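Below is one protein, fold included:
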Amino acid sequence: MAEKLYYKIGEVARMLGEEVSTIRFWSDTFPRYIKPERNAKGNRLFHPEDLENIRLIHYLARTEGLTLDGVARKLEENRDGLDHKRQIVEKLYNIRSSLAEIYESI
């Protein structure tokens, strides 16, 4: 599947299982990492890079349980290592979901 140029805030929220208000809050809290465009209506349109940064923030806040200050510190320290770890955890969750679906179909 081809990567989109922009993602609407609702799409981002659904991808992560978060409320739109949470994505909006993270966007406002981390403007250095999340820089959405605005359409004529003023709606946020997120670039693929924004989406990756939001996924990383989601991972740090939800999976690692960090506070907003903790998330900010981690983003400053070791972004590449964090992103790699997040990708691994995401793949493991996908595998777990697939296995659960197989188990339920038996």
Notes: The chain has a mean pLDDT of 88. Helices lie at 9-16, 20-29, 48-63, 68-77, 79-105. The longest strand covers residues 44-46. The longest helix spans residues 79-105.
